[in-house]
Amino acid sequence: MTQSDPRLTEATAFAAAQESPFPRDLLAHLESGHFEPPPYNTVLGPVFPRGAPNGLVQQRGQRLASWGDTRQADMTFSAAKSYLSLLAGIAQADGLLPDIDEPVRARVQDGGFDSAQNAPITWRHLLTNTSEWEGELFGKSDRIDRGRELAREGAAQKRMDRPLQPAGTHWEYNDVRVNRLSLCLLHLFRRPLPEVFAERILDPIGGSRDWTWHGYDNAWVEIAGQRLQSVPGGTHWGAGMRIHAEDQARIGQLVLQKGAWDGKQVVPEAWIAQSLAPCPLNPAYGFLWWLNGAGRWPEAPRDSVFAMGAGGNVTWIWPQGEVVAVLRWVHPDAVGPFCAKVAAALG
Fold it and tell me: End-to-end CA distance of the chain, in Å?
């Protein structure tokens, strides 16, 4: 553990001691039915064992503390959803997504938005988890994640028979629908999203190429005559983003700086502002970012923003304190108290 500010000693020691309940063998954990029982838990992509807990704290872009191996690339689960949000901002900057309230079917005509249930769905609906999209994607039905209770993940039986509501009238955390958004973005860019993410986001902010964003083995589609692999917004069924804390901190710093880096606007400032505005149906959520304005994490500052992944993979952005922290494999119950300790030290 490195430490340059003695005020952070307690906070970082606390985080380092609060290890995730996820076992090191992540494949066995997924196959054991953590998210859902067989046959719905079939893994579709590569899964790698996780490493030891690690993390870092920085303020105004300066690292103040770290623990563990912060260059240990690990699966990050649903933190990748927030990366899809940034890619949607790039699509808008490029003129590929001029109106997020336009029906998706106006630009994505692959049959996925033809039904009466899906035709009214807009990009905003997909970005806020309010789409109520119905269907199957890469062998996974949206029903698998219907009735999902994040507070009791792995312990509660999902209400897979929950009746669907009209688009834009019901909020639900649903990985299949997020993966549908990812496929739609692939249609817009007509290039693999990992390539776009590297060239347009991580390269301009000095990120590494130590990360990989895996797709499902069966997630190959043909777009404009090209065979392309779609990537998921998590690791619910394997695959997903494998990245280290240092790159994640740079991404968090980019968002803290409203999309700007070294005088260049990497992601439009207006997009960042929209992304971090609360969804009317769930004030704790923006465009695939978690928000704390309603006190979801009571101990943390109310202006906190989070990219959150299962297993305790967290990027915390605290705008008022100009702080970014990354926690890898921390116990989820420790996130709020950790934020409070850091805020007390640096506020």
Answer: 22
